[in-house]
UniProtKB/TrEMBL annotation:
The lineage of its organism: Bacteria, Bacillati, Bacillota, Bacilli, Bacillales. GO terms for molecular function: glycosyltransferase activity. This is Uncharacterized protein. Keywords: Glycosyltransferase, Transferase. It comes from Alkalicoccus saliphilus. It comes from the Bacteria.
Length: 126
């Protein structure tokens, strides 16, 4: 993966196996419809769903992806710290709220035709 900023471009090696995520496809998750996958992720973000194997795996994927995102956004110094932060947010029931905030911020700052200097900037709290 490449981390590109205004100052530099860095190559970052990310290995999901380090977080307990097996390489390749997961048959259990592969057989879910898109709606079932979305419902499962919402359950994870609401702090639910850990009673099933699918829910546990979705929780693992969610915290890993969020940890990587926190690291890339500069919110945590390492991916592991990002994963721990994601765990704390999910335990506090703030996962869904955080997703909504990130969507809002992404729409305002990154996916727009407005010149960079005209974009509204806000701190992205975690």
């Amino acid at each position: 993966m490449y981390h590109v900023t205004e100052r530099e471009t860095r190559c970052i090696d990310i290995d999901p196996k380090e977080a307990g995520i097996a390489a390749g496809r997961n048959k259990m998750m592969e057989n879910l419809t898109l709606t079932e996958q979305a419902d499962l992720i919402i359950q994870v973000l609401e702090g639910k769903g850990l009673s099933t194997e699918k829910g546990k795996y979705a929780h693992l994927l969610t915290t890993y992806n969020t940890g990587v995102r926190c690291y890339l956004f500069g919110l945590t110094p390492t991916i592991c710290d990002g994963i721990q932060l994601a765990e704390k947010k999910l335990e506090a029931g703030k996962g869904l709220q955080q997703l909504k905030l990130w969507r809002e911020l992404s729409n305002e700052t990154h996916f727009t035709d407005r010149p960079r200097e005209q974009r509204q900037r806000r701190n992205c709290p975690v």
